[in-house]
Amino acid sequence: MFRRHLLGFLFVMLFIAPAWSVMFAQAQGGTVSTFSTGSAEETVTMSSGQNSSIGFQLDRNTTVTSASFFIKPTISGPSPGVLELDVNQDGFPEWAFNGTGYGGFGHQTVFSSGNTTETVSIDPNQGAVSNPDSPPFSIPTGASVSSTVLDVGFSPSLSGGYFQTGYIHAVDKGDLNNDSNIDFALLSRTASVNSTSPTGPVTGQATAFRIAAYSNTTGVTLSSWQTTCENATRIMIADVNGDDHDDVIGYAPADDELCLHFTNTSSGGFEPQVNVTHASNIIDLAFGDFTGNGLDEMVSIRSGGEVHVDVFSNRTNTFTNRDSATVYITGSNNKATLTHMLFAYFGGPQNNPSLMAIQSSGTANPVFWDTTNSAVVVSTTTVSGISQGSLVGDFDGDQDLDILSPRPTGHRSIENRGPLGWDGDNHNVLLTLTNASILDYDLDLAAHLLVPNPGNPDGNPATPTGNVSAYSITSGWNYDNYVSNQASAVFEPWTSPRAVHFGDMDGDGSIEQLVLVGEGSQNGVFISAYHKVGYDIDQDGLVDVEGEGYAGNGSNGLSMLMIEDTTGELTTTLNVLSPGLPYTSDGYGIQMSPVNLSMHSITEGTFTLSGLDVHYTADFLVNANPSVSGNLSNVLNQQMTAGSGQFVVPFHFNSTNNGSFVVYNPSVAYVDGAPNIALPPTPALRLVDVEPDRVVIEWQPITDFGDDLLDFIVYRSASGQSIDLQNPYTSTLANNAIDVAVQPGQSWTYWVQSIHRFGVTSNLSLPLTTTIPYPIPKSFVPNLTASDVPDDEGGALNISWSPGDASIVEHRIFVLTTDFSDVSGQDTTLTANASATSLVVDEDSTGNPLVDGVAYYIAAIGLDIYGNASTNVTAIGPVYSRNDSALSTVIDVTYTDFTGGELDGTVLLARTKGLDVSAHLHQNGVGIANATMKLTVSGTDEAYDVEMTTNTTGHATLSIDSLSSLGPIDALGPMNLTLAYGGSEGDIMNQPLEGASTTSAAFGTVLVMLTADEPIPVQTDGFFETIIAVDAEDSVQSMYLANMGVAWQATDSSGEELSNGTAEVRGNELSVLGTAAYDGRLTLTLHHEPPTFYIPGFAASYALQSTPVVNDTTNDTDDTNETTEPTFPDVTLPATVDCGTATYEWDSNATDVLITCTVTNPNPFDVMVGFAWKVVPGTPPAIELVHNEADGDTGTVTAEADGTVDLTFSLVRNGPTEGMFPGLQGEGYVVYLTCLDFGDNACDSMTEDMAATEGELQWTLGEMPVQTVDDTLVEDDASNAMTPVLVGIGLFLAIGAAIGGVLYMRGRDDLDFVDDDEDDEDYFEQTLSAPDATGRSAGVDLTASKSLDELKSSGKTLHTDAPEGLASSPGIGSRADAFEFGATAEDAAGESADESETWNEETAEEEAWEEEAAAEDDGITVDENGTEWWEDEEGTWWYREDGWEDWAVWED
């Protein structure tokens, strides 16, 4: 029984024991909480970058279920740098502090990019982000920062500094390159200018300027020196010629000289210098757009209180006045004495500039331009206290300009309050304003006064001296715009600063300062803006660390502006921010937080961040990893061994530096029993499919890899590159992978590895490499066309097409000189993007420029995204390019007039004469064939055209037999001959031709025939007198001969001149008389400037009478051999009088209108020159000619033998001009020459010791201004009733006075000229011998000479409408050409028919009285010279001079 129980028990135990053993084994195991050293915290020190002295001590034949420990930097001591833990030494760290931008473990020295230096640009005026973040650096989340260092420097976009220029004497600013930024013109009177001499290049001193400008590509540049006015002391910038580009003006006030340097808008240089001399009374001047027309005018103050606005003329290269105004002393009519001016945009930059014209008292009148009336306006409101040396600037921040003026005891701030006027305040702080500026230099909306202090220069730039002091301008209770007496800031730009100029050179809104600096041999300019920069650590909008001052980039002696954290603000703020900063975790569980600084600046530039040094401590957990092992536990299990007892798994630490760190708090949990770590099979890869957009690979079924399979890892690398085991490409649970992240043309290599439990992996598969194929390209480009680019200068074609397939990303254009159908092997430089449908090309596919007139063939293909295209094409062509700009043409023309070219430079034309034209039309010397040119013969109110056509060589001739054949041409006076070619549009092969024209001056002349009876008699006393007939060769032009002037000269047989003078044609006759000699010549000369009249050679010569033959029968012999002295003349020859003329305006009151007469004494002895008026009116006329040399009524002067004297006459107003006729006026005179001997009584022996010359002194009375008459009728019965009576009485008195005046004047004439009646009668008998043909109507006999009785007996009576007041009018002279004879009373009075009718009705009684009076004196009127005038009923005027018996017809 017992034995059966025992067997049963054993049987049950046989089955239960295995299960019990399993239960027992699962319950066994344990934990590890110390390192192999037995301590839970150890400091590890790296030596040669390695340490493996510490690890985990594990039991054999166990499985680790979890394992971890912590690691942290030491508080002190060096950092190990990059730190890694590789337990199994397979190259895949189980933990690593090696991420990009991590820096050293516990010591951050790099930015997140891994760089030690980073930059960030800032432009406060561009974009939405005006305060950009700096490139970040990283610290662990929750790190405790012990210290920080960060170097932050700022270099502006405009990096200035010191520029060696030599001593600068003057500066102005403007925009010379039209980029809307400020440029500076620097003037030096001692500039070192290079020039060329016969021996080679030389350098000398000269007055010159150069330009300081800035561009984004070249930075600050200084142009070469440009010479200007030698004595220039000022330099100005203005757009003088209105081309939207500022120009430079050198100004030499001492010479009144402006030297204009116009900007060449193409090259950016300057045109040749234009020198302009301005008015000498200019006190000061400036340039600006004063009138708002876009052109900078010259605005000047001048003596006499004048303000002028002058504009430059590009045509004449001179300044012409646009308007002017005068400044008067307030409260008086006295002109102000202007001493200086301020010219600026006082109304703000949106308004036109204006002027402060300042008097010697410091009182200023604002002067501005009235756009409505286009006039200069001087404001009646004055501003006081503006002394010499005042400054202009916006010191109250309201965008308009104010004035700061020095005072003997302080300063005066004059605030511009806009519409409210100017408000000045006096302050007691003394200021030095020389070369100072008002400027908000730090852009804090508060202006400062910047005052340069040169210091005490010793000539050595190495010992800098001087500074620029900034003074604040403030306002408060009971004071406004007060300049502080304490400097708010002091700057030291360079040694010995002496002037501050400013302007925004780079357009960033900040103001660059240009300071004149230097001493000794180093003088130049310092350029920099004032910068304020900083960074905000906690991004709360407030700057935490800042710096300010001048800044550069290290060049030109100016370094970056550094921001220094002197208070440890970065350390403090990072400790506050660190726990809450956002972070990212890597595969090791390390959490790193980026730190960004918000950068601040008032100017554009670049921050440079470097020298990062952050020490910190933080806790890191070592557990998970991104490798296939996954965590520390799997790696420990992979190290597990069978058997019993313990073994140590060492920690293999690797680092880049020898430093130390701390590991602590280890934790390992395990169970008994070793894991299954058998090696799985290796995947065998096979390429399933490859397309342009995918790759498909596969390997063995997953059943081949066992039950512990977890995943397949796929690695991918570009062909030729090694595998990156730390960065798998993808993972999959299937036995295949599809890769769609591929592009045609790429080559990829794939590997696969299986992953199993406990971190067990298979071996890598063999690599599989494949290349992605390209898709078939769709290259066709539809609707390809090509044509010449219109309106260009040639060498270009316009190629266009329609959009092709959407796969096209680029078009390639082929342009060749031969036809083609395949482009394989061809290359081209002509491309266009995918969206383009046209391209203008100026070269062929090989890069050679297109040639006009050459045939080209064109094709196009489209490239896909992979650069593939079809090479088969269909070219279009031929296509030609053409220069569409018109070629200039030239006309060379020669005119041959009827004289054969007697006058150089002037072609003489006559109505009945011809003209020969020879022309050559060419382009750059090559004749233009079959072209039509048009000759235009034009004169006053007439023009006639004739066409001429060129031959094959471009020549054309034209012969006009007579100008009258062109039409009813007058051909008189100035004319023009214009030969014009209209141009040609050309064709597909030939360039267009520009039109051309050339104009030559011509003059239409009257052909004159002079006929004289030769020889001309000479009297025994040496006098001659002759009448020369004057006729027009063209009878139509006879009317123009009246009053033709002819110069004459009488010479003896040897050609020596005896007398000369001028004569006028009257009645087709020319009367010439003078002194001559037997066998001499009389030469008549016509003026040819202008050539109004023509005779061949403009001169005619006639023989004088030969010496009479005297029959002498005596044969006297004189043996004494004595010389016979010349005998004293028997008579005194008359004087030659040459008088000028003058114009006296109708309403003038001038007293300085002079007329000068030159009296020539032709006698070989001295004479006394006497002068007398032919008629002396009883009542002085309204405008009187006064003989200035007269002493009483008969003033005399002495003329030397064969000498001249001048007599002067003044026009003096004695009364109103009303009643006179405008136009030519005259008064007769007599000049007497009386012999003066030398005390030998020679004159007593003369037959005639006195000679008289008569003439007329002529002047012109200006036109009567148009008067506005108020013709409103005033109803007044009493005055209307009295009008006829008063008018009648007035007329009666006037007529009586006129009759008395006539009788008086005739009596005077009879007395004055009683001795000359006989001579005058002979003279007028000759004069009245009129030619047969005249220009008057057939009803008037111009040769008639009749008595008044004969005239009346022929039925002629006084015309009832004869001009009234003829005898009393001072406008009537001895010549009647001042009147339009034959005019009616209506014409003379200028009244309308209605006015005449009204007058006749109201004055019937007066007219009846006048008719009675006219009947009594037979209708004869007498002018002031005693000439009688009478008009018959046909309107013909007759005249009779004093002493005549008969009447003669007046020829106008």
Can you offer a commentary on this structure?
There is one protein chain. This protein has an eight-stranded mixed beta sheet with strand order 81-75-76-79-78-77-80-82, with no helix packed on it. Strands 12, 39, 40, 41, 42 and 46 form a six-stranded antiparallel beta sheet that branches. It is 8% helix and 40% strand. The longest helix has 36 residues, at 1277-1312. With 1452 residues, the chain is mainly beta. Helix 4 (1277-1312) runs parallel beside helix 9.
Defining traits:
40% strand; 9 helices; eight-stranded mixed beta sheet; disordered N terminus; 1452 residues; mainly beta; 96 strands
**Major sheet:** 8 strands, mixed
> Nearest-angstrom radius of gyration?
57 Å
Distance between the termini: 189 Å
Taking pLDDT < 50 over at least 5 consecutive residues as the criterion, the unreliable ranges are 1-27, 1113-1124, 1269-1287, 1302-1344, 1357-1416
Strand order of the largest sheet: 81-75-76-79-78-77-80-82
Note the total helix count: 9
Rough outline: elongated
Helix content: under 10%
What average pLDDT do the residues reach?
Answer: 85
The helix-and-strand class reads: mainly beta
Oligomer: single chain
Portion in strands: 35-45%
Q: What's the β-strand tally?
A: 96
